[in-house]
């Protein structure tokens, strides 16, 4: 299987420049260890790193194919990212979402001009493939795609540029596109740095899979238990192959740790993180014993927290 | 009276480089007008733009004087900024705070290694001057100082670099150091852009003063009514002279508008803003009729919201 290379990520960096925000690394001066930098991908257009991959994937299409339009299936941030990227390229987008997706994300997707089609959970991928064939649209998958992985990897390239002596990179893992891309960039540019994947324990399929050295399949109903609605997917064959190469270890975090990390991010880092966006910070805060010491970047992957849930979490602790 | 120049601000930019975060401009893609960029100074160390001025002021002292230490009086973010900057320079800091200051800010100031002295409100400036004389410390004023104004102006320099065709810059006004510095930078680099100062209506002394063409004095008790605890000061002779030169107009916002802007910043921009940090965004959202149209930067000056207040505001709307 052919893996994404640092050259692919460098090419992606040129495509996303000026569209994705060059997010700064934020040293957290309140942290007693003094070794935590945040990469706030929550500040991207659409509020998540996903805009990097979407832009790269649509930009990599030939003009004729691109102009016919794109289609995506997603429970959230990927939907918005594809809608936004398509709008920027001036091409039509259809987004198929499960009907349990957070309302805030569905509405935002529509606001970017996409046609949104809601289907029962579990059917959205099939429906998207069916519509792609029917209407001649190009499917932009959420993670199982080399251009998506390369696009997400541009966040890793920026980490390496801004903190060349980084020692630990903490990155959330779900479908694995982000961790594959960021890990590939870090291993190429900062080969001594450790790349640590982070999952909710309730959706810890990749931790188990990497420990066993093979893909495992957790029932959807099990993965759906976590509050981190962006981390309920599991790697594809392609992303799993990358993760085996570039992830040094996995850490799993509890639901309470995710909530506490959201509070810390709001109060100390002044960032609104969605639950999925807080897991890397939760690993730093609550699993120091499982992590190498040293200059650490925690990637805050997204900020689209449901307003009511966010208010409840802030009020609770 | 000698005003701060663009050269002073350029010199300050060299001093703060690598210490203050080079905050990005964040285009707000959810905004139907499509003309809003945020400058998130809430992401600075200590959570506010104040670190720029403090660093520049302490950095501009000669080594002998600096080594004896610094002292500041402040109700909040300036305190933390001076404490943090002094810690970075390795010199002692004493901070005199009014005993009504938000606890989160007092605790954060102590965490940066400063000696914190709490006195009744209204006495903190006098006490600081007394201690400065007694202990041979250099007073770092919150705004009435050319080095502070030049330091804050570096935020304006960055706006001009990142969006050279900016048309409107919205900046909070309290003591006026930020607006003086940012306005000076913008007028030098983007002379066609309008610089608009924003105040809470309940502390609208500068709006009144600039309308009358002379400094006015509002009773402390009146200014204390606003939720925006960072905007209760009023300009000095020095900052007022700058504001007359570089501020094209003033806008005042209501308390409800400030709260609504905090909710919008959290939900749409994924930023935690303190009330003072939200006034420029409130002006954009609710006072479009008083503002020139066009590419607008709203400066989010700080993010140190009291956690309970922030949770209450998020839950309320």
UniProtKB/TrEMBL annotation, chains A, B:
Source superkingdom: Bacteria
Any single Pfam family the record assigns to this protein: PALP
CDD domains recorded: Thr-dehyd
Keywords attached to this entry: Lyase, Pyridoxal phosphate
GO terms for MF: L-serine ammonia-lyase activity; threonine deaminase activity
Listed cofactors: pyridoxal 5'-phosphate
The Tryptophan synthase beta chain-like PALP domain, residue ranges: 33-302
BP term (GO), one: isoleucine biosynthetic process
Catalytic reaction equation(s): L-threonine = 2-oxobutanoate + NH4(+)
SUPFAM superfamilies: Tryptophan synthase beta subunit-like PLP-dependent enzymes
EC number: 4.3.1.19
Membership in a protein family: Belongs to the serine/threonine dehydratase family.
Function: Catalyzes the anaerobic formation of alpha-ketobutyrate and ammonia from threonine in a two-step reaction. The first step involved a dehydration of threonine and a production of enamine intermediates (aminocrotonate), which tautomerizes to its imine form (iminobutyrate). Both intermediates are unstable and short-lived. The second step is the nonenzymatic hydrolysis of the enamine/imine intermediates to form 2-ketobutyrate and free ammonia. In the low water environment of the cell, the second step is accelerated by RidA.
Protein's recorded name: threonine ammonia-lyase
Organism: Amycolatopsis mongoliensis
